[in-house]
Design a protein that fits this description.
This protein is an alpha+beta fold and 300 residues long. It has helices at residues 13-24, 70-82, 91-98, 100-110, 126-132, 157-169, 227-240, 268-274, 278-298; strands at residues 2-6, 28-32, 37-40, 47-50, 53-54, 60-63, 86-87, 117-118, 138-142, 151-154, 174-178, 186-193, 196-204, 219-222, 244-252, 255-262. It folds into three domains: 2-89, 3-Layer(aba) Sandwich (Rossmann fold); 117-179, 2-Layer Sandwich (Dna Ligase, domain 1); 182-263, ATP-grasp fold, B domain (D-amino Acid Aminotransferase, Chain A, domain 1, 2-Layer Sandwich). α1 packs across α9 and α4 (100-110) packs across α7 (227-240). It is globular and about 60 Å long. It starts with a strand and ends with a helix. Mean pLDDT is 91; it is low at 294-300.
């Protein structure tokens, strides 16, 4: 089977592990920089060119699309889907996951636990928004951000109003979210592949840091999820349409609260914390779906 990993960095841990896992299982694996792809759209014959050449047959792709290139990256994933190439992560699911507001609305409809969140666009609503989420301290987030960038903690009402006014003046969309103090700067990352939790870790922010992201200096350790945490993570990934996902949750007094469902979760932290071959499980998921597709074609 010929598997292409859509990634801009062949040497990154996640990309190199996926390459290694695919080759260990006997597949031909390659990395395609999605920014070097271009789509050719014509009646009944969609195709993709790479560095000026039409790509030969690809059986499956594993997208690793960065936040900064979501629009172009998902267009390339969508083009592969139009060519009947199996994508381990669907283009629509990636688009949904990158919009924090849309994600929360989808998760709210699915009935999973969430921190109370407000969204407004005018300074006149600041006092009402802060009251709706229970007052300060509050977490203020840019609608588009990753790895903890664009996430701020406002500990006083004065600080919150100052930050919100600045963003509204810049016409920048933000979410205002209740602060879950009992989480104590930690969260849980549950890694899901094919409707199963294949690994979970607890991430603890460094001293004085309320963000627990590993890219912000946090530490990840193996954790056993409760039944409620596992069910919440699976329900969140399903609602987002993601067969591969990193689901981030806070442990609160009212149960697990979903912070984010990541459509391109890194493998390094979770593999090192759990000792689980996550990359291998992703390749197995791809194999399973290619086998199903072939059975459908030949009528087995």
């Amino acid at each position: 089977m010929r598997i292409a990993i859509l990634s801009r960095n062949e040497k990154s841990y996640s990309t190199s592990r996926l390459l290694e896992a695919a080759r260990q299982r006997g597949h031909e694996a390659l990395v395609l920089d999605h920014l070097k792809c271009y789509a050719v759209i014509e009646r009944g014959n969609p195709s993709i060119c790479y560095s000026g050449q039409t790509l030969p047959k690809i059986d499956a792709i594993i997208p690793r699309i960065g936040t900064s290139v979501t629009l172009f990256g998902t267009a390339i994933v969508r083009q592969f889907e139009m060519m009947q190439v199996f994508s381990a992560i669907k283009s629509l699911a990636i688009v949904r996951s990158r919009d924090k507001l849309r994600s929360l609305q989808i998760l709210s409809k699915a009935g999973v636990g969430l921190p109370k969140t407000a969204f407004a666009s005018h300074p006149r609503d600041i006092d009402a928004v802060l009251s709706q989420v229970g007052g300060t301290p509050v977490v203020i987030k840019l609608l588009e951000g990753t790895q903890g960038v664009g996430v701020m903690l406002a500990e006083t009402r004065k600080a919150a109003k100052s930050i919100m006014e600045a963003f509204y003046e810049l016409k920048t969309n933000i979410l205002v979210q209740e602060f879950i103090s009992e989480a104590k700067g930690a969260d849980i990352r549950a890694f899901i592949v094919d409707g199963k939790v294949v690994g979970a870790m607890k991430r603890q922010g460094k001293a004085g840091e309320f963000r627990s992201n590993l890219h912000r200096g946090g530490d990840g350790v193996l954790i056993k999820l409760t039944k409620q945490e596992k069910e919440t993570a699976l329900a969140a990934a399903k609602a987002m349409g993601l067969s591969i996902a990193g689901v981030d949750m806070l442990q609160s007094n009212r149960g697990p609260l979903i912070m984010e469902v990541n459509s391109s979760p890194g493998l390094e932290g979770i593999e090192k914390a759990t000792g689980v071959d996550i990359a291998g499980k992703i390749i197995q998921y791809v194999e399973k779906n290619i086998f199903i597709d072939k059975k459908d074609v030949i009528g087995v």
